[in-house]
Specification:
The complex is a heterodimer of chains A (266) and B (365). By secondary structure, chain A is an alpha/beta fold. Helices cover 36% and strands 23% of the residues of chain A. Chain A has 9 helices and 10 strands. In chain A, helix 3 packs across helix 4 and helix 4 crosses helix 5. In chain A, 49% of the residues are buried. Chain B is mostly helical. The chains are: A alpha/beta (266), B mainly alpha (365). Chains A and B meet through helix 2, strand 6 and helix 3 of A and helix 12 and helix 13 of B.
């Protein structure tokens, strides 16, 4: 590690699974706009995500990157344009929205585990109530994913008894239990103490190696370099630049991108 | 070495001064800490010496426990005979005396059910069914008319059974209604939201007494001729509607304390609105508001005594009837102390149960 929290590309080995571009894209956003009242947060967003593709979105705070991924599972409503997730168009139809949410996993900056439920119950809740999985099977799946995020021994504790890094790994496992087609990460390591960042990134990298489609909003540039197929840079609600990690970091095209990179990479 | 050791053990053997610990220390710290506190302590001791012995005299020594009213008038102390002599009427009121085992059984059943339900490990579907059956049996015992039980008019329901009925049904029905109103008030649907707001604000804007009057005097005027709704039922509905509005506001406070992230996490799993509320939001919100909710339930319990003004014979009214008997006039202090004790036992039980529930639920997080 270089400075606190920042992990360089040398710490992480590159992930090799490739996007399946021949299939229909998992997410297709065309001409999407969003306003908060009068404030134009997202303007004319076009983004197509292939299955198994991994995208990292970065940009200064307030640039609309979180809002963009929150539009994908309708935590935020867009006002113009079109969002299609796994062939389902996002409209006001609540049934469609719930169907999409079940297919789209989301990991939050502040974990948002359910504090009144044990870790195991946090994981089985979605499968039991949304997927109608039998309890025993849901628990088996939950233990499998807890094992995977290396936290199985904590299954019967409550979220408040776990460290931040552990909680975030549980949150990832909670999403995985729903067997999602795509995972959205909203600054998953920003609220963590520096020494816990790596344990969460490691889990995310394993996920990438298994071919999970991921859209990650993060400032972890090392992670972007080794995992992303594409890096998006956003500023003032627009996608300013979009490129492969190599090109993005070594040969940024846009002035604002250069400025941002110089600030974040020191 | 030797010397060091002895010094060490000497120091570890030192005890705090006798005036700092134990009974002496406590007394000094809390009662005689400086001249001002010493004076206060002495003053209070003097006051207690003046008040307590006469009170004990009145309560126990000079009192009559099972005498006629004439003997009571002759004695100096409390006349507990008013209770022992009239206990049947105070508790059961107008209920036919030869059938009073029925309300008694109903009350014991209620107490038993409450006692059993107090343990959270017993909560479940089975207990829900048990309650449904128990409430049916209690109703049957009160009303009769089935299985060879002689029917008893609801106008004869009175005393403690009536008080308990009004309050138990009042709380049990008002709580879910209040939760629904709270959710309604935070709903995104304008019609539901404004209905809830109007309801809550209107009900909170009027005293319970006026609601009771409306239910007993005004409401029957609007019914078509020939249709009457039982007076107790009308009072019961007024109590439910009133309590629900207050519970709604308390629960709304709890809902506001749940962070946006909890809603978002629940939504992003694909849970529908009903599931989000039932599984994620309400369990947390309702837990936070246990203390104020129990406060409202306790005051609802005591407020049932207001049905006196629409001439329902609840516990307070039966006691007042006894006091209006010329034989027992003038012993109102004893009578009121007695029913105050009944109210206190019930309210204290609720309060301490709520503390226990809070502790048990709090242990999880």
């Amino acid at each position: 590690m270089s400075s606190a929290g920042q992990i360089t590309a040398n710490d992480l080995k590159p992930v090799t699974t490739e996007p399946r571009r021949e299939e229909s894209p998992i997410i297709r956003i065309t001409g999407m706009h969003k306003w908060f009242g009068e404030f134009h947060v997202l303007s004319n967003i076009h983004l197509t995500v292939a299955r198994q593709e991994r995208i990292v979105i970065c940009g200064p705070s307030g640039s609309g990157k979180s809002t963009l991924i929150r539009c994908i599972n309708r935590l935020e409503e867009h006002q113009r344009g079109e969002i299609i997730v796994d062939e389902i168009k996002l409209t006001n139809d609540i049934k469609n929205i719930e169907k999409i949410r079940a297919e789209v996993g989301m990991v939050f900056q502040h974990f948002n585990l359910f504090p009144h439920l044990s870790i195991l119950e946090n994981l089985t809740l979605g499968p039991i109530w949304v997927r109608k999985t039998p309890k025993a099977e849901a628990e088996e799946t939950a233990m499998y994913y807890l094992e995977k995020v290396r936290i199985a021994e904590q299954a019967h504790k409550y979220p408040g008894q776990l460290s931040g890094g552990q909680q975030q790994r549980v949150a990832i496992a909670r999403s995985l239990c729903m067997k999602p087609r795509v995972m959205l990460f909203d600054e998953p390591t920003s609220a963590l103490d520096p020494e816990m960042v790596k344990e969460v990134l490691d889990v995310m990298i394993e996920l990438a190696e298994e071919g999970m489609t991921m859209i990650v909003v993060t400032h972890e540039m090392g992670f972007a370099k080794s995992v992303a197929h594409r890096v998006l840079f956003m500023d003032f609600g627009k996608i300013v630049e979009e490129n492969t990690p190599d090109e993005f970091f070594n040969n940024p095209q846009h002035e604002r991108t250069k400025l941002f990179l110089s600030q974040i990479l020191h | 070495m030797e010397k060091e050791k002895s010094i060490l053990s000497d120091e570890s053997n030192i005890r705090p001064p006798a005036t700092q610990v134990g009974v002496l220390g406590w007394t000094k710290k809390n009662l005689f800490d400086g001249p001002w506190n010493t004076a206060l302590t002495l003053l209070i001791l003097f006051f207690l010496w003046k008040v307590i012995p006469p009170l004990i005299d009145w309560f126990f020594i000079e009192s009559r426990w099972a005498s006629t009213s004439a003997e009571c008038y002759a004695a100096d102390g409390a006349c507990w005979s008013i209770i022992t002599y009239n206990i049947r009427f105070i508790i059961f009121g107008l209920f036919p005396p030869h059938l009073q085992w029925r309300p008694l059984t109903a009350m014991l059943l209620l107490a038993g059910m409450l006692f059993y339900s107090r343990d959270r490990r017993h909560w479940g579907k089975g207990l829900g069914y048990a309650w449904a059956v128990a409430l049916f049996v209690m109703g049957l015992l009160m009303k009769g008319g089935l299985f060879g039980l002689a029917p008893v008019e609801s106008t004869q329901w009175s005393g403690l059974p009536l008080t308990l009925m009004l309050s138990v049904f009042g709380m049990v029905a008002a709580y879910p209604l209040g939760v629904m109103l709270a959710l309604g008030r935070r709903s995104g649907m304008p019609a539901i939201k404004s209905l809830s707001v109007v309801y809550i604000e209107m009900i909170r804007g009027v005293p319970l007494i006026s609601l009771l009057f409306m239910s007993s005097v005004m409401f029957p005027l609007f019914l078509p001729e020939g249709i009457t709704i039982n007076k107790i039922l009308r009072a019961q509905v007024a109590i439910i509607l009133f309590t629900a509005a207050y519970i709604a506001e308390v629960v709304r406070g709890g809902l506001q304390a749940i962070s946006r992230g909890q809603y978002e996490a629940a939504e992003s799993l694909g849970l529908n609105y009903y599931q989000q509320m039932r599984l994620i939001i309400l369990p947390q919100a309702l837990k936070i508001v246990i203390p104020p909710t129990v406060g409202i339930l306790i005051s609802a319990f005591k407020d049932t005594s207001l049905v006196v003004i629409i001439a329902l014979y609840d516990l307070l009214k039966t006691t007042q009837s006894v006091l209006s008997n010329p034989k027992w006039m003038g012993f109102s202090a004893e009578a009121y102390i007695f029913i105050a004790l009944i109210y206190f036992i019930c309210c204290y039980a609720m309060a301490s149960y709520s503390r226990r529930l809070e502790r048990e639920l709090g242990a999880n997080t």
